[in-house]
Amino acid sequence: MEREKVPSMEEEHKIRKAFKDKDWTEIKSSDSWVIFKVMSEFVQGFEKLSKIGPCVTIFGSARTQPEHPYYKMAEDIAFKLVHHGYGVITGGGPGIMEAGNKGAHRAGGKSVGLNIFLPHEQKGNIYIDPEKLISFDYFFVRKVMFVKYSQGYIVMPGGFGTLDELTEAITLIQTQKIGRFPIVLVGKEFWGGVLDWFRNTLVNEKMIDIEDFDLINLVDTPEEAVKVIDDFYSKYLLVPNF
Questions:
Q1: Is 32 part of a structural domain of the chain?
Q2: In the chain, how many domains are there?
Q3: Which residues span the domain enclosing 174?
Q4: Is residue 27 domain-resident?
Q5: In percent, how much of the chain has pLDDT > 90?
Q6: Cβ contacts of residue 54 below 8 Å, gap of 6+?
Q7: Distance between CA atoms of 117 and 135, rounded to whole angstroms?
Q8: Other Cβ atoms closer than 10 A to 35
Q9: Structural contact between residues 67 and 174, judged by C-beta atoms closer than 8 angstroms
């Protein structure tokens, strides 16, 4: 039988704190201060990202090692995106994020990192342009920056965080909260089971429409990934401006 995980003291404190009634003094001194911290992160993000030009975001696992084929593929995709006129945005950390920034840096393009402070990871990787590294405490502020300043999304293999970013982008496009920017899943073997579950469960249970699959492109190579982005914008006669 699997042993139940015992919460750490810090986890237990957070759980108990959620049930504690706060008086007005506590609300003013703590919760109200959070509002200003959130505002400052939005302002910093808007100021730094408003003039970066057309960029494509690369999502993927922080755990992918440099010798892994997924890492090399993400680096190649970023390199090719720069040569096709795009900058690259990543989550700023290690793994696939580092690979994306490395490819953009190697190609001499714009390399943007939206870092998040986490208990065990992560710090900004060395391939981010120094003036384009922004660190956040709040995931939701960081996600706003991803969707506000990206003209497309390349989704490499990843875990819960990558799935969160993928479904966030799909949801915002599906609900017409943002434009219908291209979403490219890289790795047919990796993503095939997820898409099968979407089709066989979500569609059959009428949780989504079969037409929602038109929002997703599934590819296997860097060349195919970049071609999806190029083909999308060629329909609108748009060309990156740097």
A1: no
A2: 1
A3: 37-234
A4: no
A5: 76
A6: 85, 86, 87, 151, 240, 241, 242
A7: 7
A8: 9
A9: no
Nearest alpha carbon to residue 154 among 202, 109, 221: 221
Other CB atoms within 10 A of residue 182 CB: 20
Let me know if residue 14 belongs to a domain.
Answer: no
Contact (Cβ atoms closer than 8 angstroms) between residue 53 and residue 239 = no
Sheet of 55-59, strand order? 133-136, 111-116, 87-90, 55-59, 153-155, 183-186, 216-219
Tokens (6 digits) for 12: 């237990």
pLDDT digits (tens, 9 = 90+) for 39-52: 999 999 999 999 89
Instruction: Give the span between the Cα atoms of 4 and 17, in whole angstroms.
Output: 22
Per-residue pLDDT of 151-178, as tens digits, reads 999 999 999 999 999 999 999 999 999 9
Q: What is the DSSP letter of 132?
A: G
Classify each residue of 55-82 as buried b or exposed e, where b means 16 or more C-beta atoms within 10 Å of its C-beta. Answer: bbbbbbbbebeeebebbebbbbbbbbbb
Question: DSSP label at 216?
Answer: E
Positive or negative: CA dihedral 184, 188, 191, 192: positive
Look up residue 63 and give its DSSP letter: T
DSSP class of 199:
I
pTM of the prediction?
0.85
